[in-house]
Amino acid sequence: MLGAGARPQLIQRKAGLRPTPEDRRVPACPEVPPPVEENVARIVYASQSLIADSVYAQMERIRSSALRHNQPLGVSTALLHQSGWFLQWKEGPGEVLRALMERVARDARHHALRIVHASRGPRLLDGPWSMAIVQCDDAPEAFAQRVALLRRRHEDGCQDEPPAVWRQLSTPLGHPGAERQADPSAFTRVLVCAAQGAGSFELVRWLARRHGQPLVHRRLAGACDLDVATDYVDFPAGERLARVIAMARRGLGVPLARAFLPDYARVLLLLSGEADADLRLVRRVAAACAGRPQAPALLGVGACADIHAPLAQVAHGFGLAYRGVLADSAEPSAAWNAAAPFIH
């Protein structure tokens, strides 16, 4: 999964430790996604891990093999390891996926493979490889319970889109609204990125403390040695529920992260006041949104009114809505309280 050669550091961080949200490595892959193609076959399956040694090392071997064999065949893959389970989402030509699944079923690194989604539709994973390791207080039995529920829904003909299936399986049962992840009207989802520093992660940690909810730590990697942190918290927000996700800036280069962009109501930009850094952030978000059927509106938070006009002009040039909010982006409570009326 993660390639041979230079090793991206997919670190399973313990709760309470601060993630390093920004990598200092320069990604080898371009950030602009390729053009969207015609409909492809899409399959999502879960299986129990049989790996006794390092999960990371095995995922690295799988990535290397997938990039060598599957990428030339037009197959895109996202892989999750959580609570002793694997979750894979694959897209590509139907005949190729059928042959690939026969080989996957024989792989000795997992067992009890259960298909929870199969469809044809637009390709949502616009790069060959994504992977994630999640650390949370979620027992293997709880993950199995979610798999069984999704399997029954699949067998009954209920068909959620792959991102909704992914969210339902990866959200711990104890989280607010875990059972409502498939309902698009139940959640307001907000992505937070900071132009500089780790402000997005500080804001999400503050929200977790404020609402008394657990913080979920994740690490993402793409095909080209990207390795980034992303944390999230779920909490009640009036009649709806909120999921607020802190994303390292380079995380927008991971295909799995880009696939979820249409689900976000807003992308909250914590601006630095330095023109170049703020413009780079807006352009990075715009590149990640390119080719999506719909894109979230941008909500820029900064203390100086003058910074918003040029950012709005750039965002509008990419077809994105932009609203500026005056607040100190370095202070989580001030930033969130100023932005919240334009989110919910």
Automatic annotation (TrEMBL):
Stretches assigned to the BLUF domain: 40-132
Gene3D superfamilies, alphabetized: 3.30.70.100
Region (Disordered) location: 1-26
Pfam families hit by this protein: BLUF
Residue ranges crossing the lipid bilayer per the database entry: none
Taxonomic superkingdom: Bacteria
UniProt feature coiled coil, ranges: none
GO molecular function, one term: FAD binding
Residues annotated as signal peptide: none
InterPro entries for the chain: Acylphosphatase-like_dom_sf, BLUF_domain
Official protein name in the record: BLUF domain-containing protein
Organism placement in taxonomy: Bacteria, Pseudomonadati, Pseudomonadota, Betaproteobacteria, Burkholderiales
